[in-house]
Structure to design on (1184 residues):
């Protein structure tokens, strides 16, 4: 068999964990080979080894049938292996050409030769249908085009094997389709692709074969055409999975959150959310679907009080809170599970106890007249730890940095639910967690709904939105392009809306 | 605990480097250090001087440490100290009040002066996200020139152009009881003020909601903001307190250790405060101990210089090298780990238990 | 007014040059991703090394400009060696770059005086003579600018302007410049492109050390003539110029000229009647206040290298 890359019996240990344990992956020339696994299953480590970022403790890597030692990424590049990282490695103030030639510059004597390089980039771009302008600055082009610049970077260095790490996470549905076409073009030209993902649909749509890994071990390699999504999912998780979440029909009550023609600017001073209206009622979960960066963050920040809107109003239980402080809103019943738990949700160097009172330290009994009551704080935290099953080394005194991601997230969710908020905003509440934690968190969110709370869910995972929400609002470029009942819609409709095709009659604005 | 060990090793390295410096310039390190420590500790007067020398360092150290706890780098303690000291001196030279009352006014003036000088960078940081390092450096030089022209203009000294009039007895922190107790030393009430500041610092940081807020902002500004803590207010408040502490340092220096204010120099204690805070791991007790140690080096250097030929700048060199090693604490951590591993390997003659991927 | 300007300008340029070269060095350091607030200390080291070498050589060969050039060269080398301390702490040990820079300032200030005192007792080193001024032939006869720019000049002025031009070219037109800037903006992108980020950052800091050392020594061979243990805040003013110039060579040139001019005006204001009416304190604090205002104005649109000040950890993705 003609293999482009063979990774045989790879083992890699980090202090405390075995990231890869006897993993085997063989990439045929001219195929798209999916690497499927949950977060933390060891996908990134494995690809890091192939790309020379880590050294395997045991095992063998062969490229074109020859055993190789890949000591650093430069060696990988020389062997014709290229990687598009999940977080692009592009210098935003440089042009496309400057980014692509960086590290292997064309030159005339001592001087950079940008012209020759740009011409070559233009050629490559046309040949593979990438449609990239070599003279544009990175900060001015779309995320989708940035990804194509990353692909061009590899092609410019004559890569034969392309590793794409979660390439669709940042793309619109249309861009995802385009990427599929690009992958097919690449294969026709004889390239081979490893596609790292945890999205089964994309594997179905694009891959020939799929290697599934779980907890650092190979579970198996399957022929994609002959394997169902459910079967692959079970291989990934290691037990039976249901894609549906159990929940009763919603019993919506009074309006809790009312957002009325809200317009919000982003950090770049551009209007990120325009004329956006939404109602969330007690006892329902409203999901916001949309591709990353279409105004979701600005919407959440405006509701939570972290960003001033340009115009429009936000009301909570009938009271206008548009200009109210964050603390005022928390006191009036808004709980907020932020997008990035480590950056925004927790003070990592504080203990669990200190983190649990982050919003209520100034109230009795946690403090009186500005003096902290450490015992009361500890007891409060212990209650949350017990009821949300937060596992840690030293209980309430544990430093949060030492907790696993799942436990950190549980702590945040416990903290917010303990506030007993009328409106709970959950942003990407399960990002990066294992299936067990995801199921637990989903149950807790539904439980809040069933207790008669309003829940606003923002997620980039369409499945999560579809499974949890009672109603779904779709945003595209800061506008609400549609709002639908979850029971009456499906992925296709939402996907169309996310791409900017408007439903509803409301074209006015 | 861990930071305590690192600090001790940094001190050791600093002293070693000092020894090397003495040796390469043809002096005996042994004699040098003997006289250096004797100079700071030999008799009550010298001990008193050591304590007095340490006093402004305690204040500037607390100032830098307090700001650091809120995630701010107060590199402007020198300017805050100078301006606080200037306002206090101005009060001392202008008002005719009974000593206790005048001292109280001066202490308040010193705090306000320092706070005023720090609140500007604080506001710039909170409101415009201007990096406080650059703005406090600018404020240092603005203080330098303001005092440079204000002192000769309003409080010109009798003899020298470069200093103010002498403070009257009612306006000095020196009291006969202490001076006599320590055999004529210039130790003064500033030390007690400093000890009170250490205690207040510890209480605020560990026990109050204010301290909780400031630390939360320092450790994770975004999370604090998301939790409804008024981040900008915390930043400004932290700078006010930090500046006020440095201003008190100015009071202790110019109205305690000295008897008037000098112009044409930024007080070195401002920058030494960074070293004090760093070596003391930004804890109140750590700051106190570090300041005492640096005070010892500074107060002993004159005696050393008199008894040997070693220039007094050896003390500054040692302190500067200590701060470098404290900044490069990872080096020390690696060294300790390496030593521990070597010992383990020596006794077990097996592979080391843990391997760290770096 | 015009005569005042013609009087002041040559002095302003002389004062600008050490600021300019130091800020330019800092540009390389910060563009590579290392914040260097140790400029003041590096200048002191350069001033000391330069004064020391010139002092020694002038005793051997009096009236020979070679001693001065030798001093400048050694000052650069001393600056490089000293900057390695900062590079090592910041790059290899992920130390806080502000603290490390502060340590550089303190070490430089203390050790140079310590060493100087071992030699001269007073701690000051006076050189016999510095560079002499001259009018550039032909060019100084050009109307208007000839008087402003080409009279009373030093060789070092032209040398530094040449370095500025060369640096601009290197930074924007060569692979080295592209790589250096990438390391300051997005070191992980640079690493992924096969660039040795640490090496580039070492280069940046060392260039900063060399240029700061040169700047410190130029003070000695032009307007100061004596090493006194400090450069009176010029290093910090250079740092301000870097920010004021928004991390661009031409911006730095403009900023340092501005500061040089402002400082000169403040220094000579008492002897020039039209300026004597302004209180000197206003003129003295003017550059610093302007920098504060500039910081506010630029706060929204700052073009600081994005990764400057952050330790680079290649494991982080």
């Amino acid at each position: 068999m003609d293999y482009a890359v063979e990774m045989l019996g790879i083992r890699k240990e980090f202090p405390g964990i075995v990231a890869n344990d006897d993993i085997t992956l063989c990439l045929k020339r001219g195929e798209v080979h999916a690497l499927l696994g949950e977060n933390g299953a060891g996908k990134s480590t494995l690809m890091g080894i192939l790309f020379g970022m880590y050294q395997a403790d045991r095992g063998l890597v062969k490229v074109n049938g020859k055993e190789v030692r890949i000591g650093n990424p430069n060696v990988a590049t020389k062997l014709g292996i290229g990687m598009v990282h999940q977080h692009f490695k592009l210098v935003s103030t440089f042009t496309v050409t400057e980014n692509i030639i960086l590290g292997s510059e064309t030159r005339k004597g001592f001087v950079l030769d940008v012209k020759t390089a740009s011409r070559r980039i233009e050629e490559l771009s046309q040949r593979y249908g990438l449609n990239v302008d070599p003279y544009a600055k990175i900060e001015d082009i779309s995320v989708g085009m940035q990804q194509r610049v990353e692909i061009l970077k590899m092609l410019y260095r004559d890569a034969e094997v392309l590793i794409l790490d979660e390439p669709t996470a940042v793309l619109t549905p249309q861009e995802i389709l385009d990427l599929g076409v690009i992958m097919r073009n690449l294969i026709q030209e004889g390239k081979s692709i490893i596609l790292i993902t945890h999205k089964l649909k994309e594997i179905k749509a694009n891959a020939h074969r799929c290697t599934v890994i779980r907890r650092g071990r190979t579970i198996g390699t399957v022929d994609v055409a002959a394997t169902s999504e459910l079967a692959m999912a079970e291989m990934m998780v290691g037990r039976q999975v249901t894609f549906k979440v159990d929940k009763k029909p919603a019993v919506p009550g009074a309006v809790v959150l009312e957002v009325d023609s809200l317009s919000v600017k982003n950090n770049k001073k551009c209007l990120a959310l325009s004329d956006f209206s939404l109602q969330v009622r007690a006892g329902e979960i409203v999901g916001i679907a949309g591709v990353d960066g279409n105004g979701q963050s600005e919407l959440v920040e405006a509701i939570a009080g972290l960003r001033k809107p340009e115009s429009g109003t936000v009301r909570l239980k009938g009271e206008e809170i548009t200009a109210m402080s964050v603390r005022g809103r928390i006191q009036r019943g808004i709980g907020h599970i932020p997008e990035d738990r480590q950056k925004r949700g927790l003070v990592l160097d504080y203990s669990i106890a200190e983190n649990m009172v982050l919003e209520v330290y100034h109230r009795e009994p946690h403090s009186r007249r500005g003096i902290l009551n450490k015992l009361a704080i500890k007891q409060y935290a212990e209650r949350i730890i017990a009821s949300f099953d937060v596992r840690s080394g030293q209980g309430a005194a544990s430093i949060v940095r030492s907790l696993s991601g799942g436990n950190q997230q549980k702590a945040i969710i416990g903290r917010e639910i303990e506030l007993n908020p009328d409106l709970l905003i959950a942003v990407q509440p399960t990002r990066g967690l294992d299936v067990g934690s995801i199921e637990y968190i989903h149950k807790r969110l539904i439980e809040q709904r069933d207790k008669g709370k309003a829940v606003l869910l923002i997620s980039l995972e369409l499945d999560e939105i579809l499974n949890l929400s009672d109603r779904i609002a779709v945003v595209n470029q800061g506008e609400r392009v549609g709002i639908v009942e979850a029971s009456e819609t499906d992925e296709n409709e939402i996907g169309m809306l996310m791409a900017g095709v408007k439903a509803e009659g409301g074209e006015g604005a | 605990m861990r930071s305590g060990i690192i600090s001790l090793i940094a001190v050791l390295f600093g002293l070693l480097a000092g020894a090397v410096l003495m040796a390469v310039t043809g002096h005996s390190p042994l004699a040098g250090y003997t006289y250096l420590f004797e100079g700071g500790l030999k008799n009550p007067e010298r001990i008193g001087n050591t304590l007095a020398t340490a006093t402004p360092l305690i204040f500037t150290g607390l100032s830098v440490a307090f700001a650091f706890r809120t995630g701010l780098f107060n590199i402007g303690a020198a300017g805050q100290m100078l301006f606080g000291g200037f306002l206090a001196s101005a009060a001392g030279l202008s008002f005719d009040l009974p000593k206790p009352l005048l001292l109280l006014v001066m202490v308040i003036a010193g705090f306000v002066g320092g706070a005023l000088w720090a609140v500007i960078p604080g506001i710039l940081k909170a409101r415009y996200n201007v990096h406080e390092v650059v703005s406090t450096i600018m404020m240092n030089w603005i203080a330098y020139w303001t005092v440079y022209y204000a002192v000769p203009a309003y409080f010109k000294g009798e003899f020298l152009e470069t200093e103010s009039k002498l403070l009257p007895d009612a306006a000095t922190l020196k009291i006969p009881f202490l001076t006599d107790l320590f055999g004529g030393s210039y130790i003064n009430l500033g030390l007690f003020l400093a000890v009170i500041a250490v205690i207040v610092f510890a209480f605020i940081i560990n026990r109050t909601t204010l301290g909780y807020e400031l630390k939360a902002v320092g450790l994770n500004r975004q999370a604090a903001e998301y939790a409804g803590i008024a981040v900008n207010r915390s930043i400004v408040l932290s700078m006010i307190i930090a500046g006020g502490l440095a201003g008190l340092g100015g009071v202790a220096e110019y109205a305690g250790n000295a008897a008037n204010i000098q112009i044409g120099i930024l007080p070195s204690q401002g920058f030494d405060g960074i070293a004090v805070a760093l070596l003391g791991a930004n804890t109140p007790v750590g700051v106190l101990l570090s300041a005492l140690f640096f005070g010892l080096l500074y107060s002993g250097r004159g005696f050393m210089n008199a008894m040997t030929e070693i220039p007094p700048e050896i003390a500054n060199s040692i302190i500067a090298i200590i701060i470098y090693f404290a900044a490069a604490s990872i080096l020390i951590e690696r060294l300790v780990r390496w030593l521990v591993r070597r010992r383990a390997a020596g006794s077990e003659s097996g592979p080391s238990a843990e391997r760290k991927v770096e | 007014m015009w005569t005042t300007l013609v009087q002041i300008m040559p002095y302003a340029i002389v004062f600008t040059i050490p600021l300019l070269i130091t800020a330019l060095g800092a540009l390389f350091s910060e563009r590579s991703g290392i914040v260097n607030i140790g400029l003041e200390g590096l200048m002191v080291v350069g001033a000391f090394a330069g004064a020391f070498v010139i002092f020694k050589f002038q005793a051997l060969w009096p009236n020979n400009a070679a001693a001065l050039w030798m001093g400048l060269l050694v000052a650069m080398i001393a600056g490089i060696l000293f900057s390695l301390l900062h590079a090592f702490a910041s790059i290899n040990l992920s130390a806080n770059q502000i603290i490390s820079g502060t340590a550089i300032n303190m070490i430089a200030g203390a050790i140079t005086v310590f060493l100087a005192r071992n030699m001269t007792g007073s701690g000051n080193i006076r050189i016999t003579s510095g560079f002499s001024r001259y009018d550039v032939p032909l060019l100084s006869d050009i109307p208007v600018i000839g008087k402003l720019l080409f009279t009373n000049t030093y060789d070092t002025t032209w040398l530094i302007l040449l370095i500025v031009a060369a640096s601009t070219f290197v930074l924007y037109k060569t692979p080295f410049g592209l790589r250096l800037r990438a390391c300051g903006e997005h070191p992980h992108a640079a690493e992924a492109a096969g660039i040795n980020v640490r090496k580039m950052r070492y280069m940046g800091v060392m260039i900063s050390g060399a240029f700061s050392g040169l700047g410190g020594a130029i003070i000695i061979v032009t307007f100061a003539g004596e090493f006194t243990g400090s450069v009176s805040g010029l290093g910090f003013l250079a740092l301000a110029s870097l920010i004021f110039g928004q991390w661009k060579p031409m911006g730095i040139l403009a900023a340092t000229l501005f500061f040089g001019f402002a400082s000169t005006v403040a220094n000579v204001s008492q002897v020039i009647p039209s300026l004597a009416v302004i209180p000197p304190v206003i003129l003295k604090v003017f550059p610093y206040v302007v920098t504060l205002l500039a910081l506010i104005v630029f706060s929204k649109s700052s073009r600081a290298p994005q990764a400057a000040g952050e330790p680079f950890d290649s494991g982080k993705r």
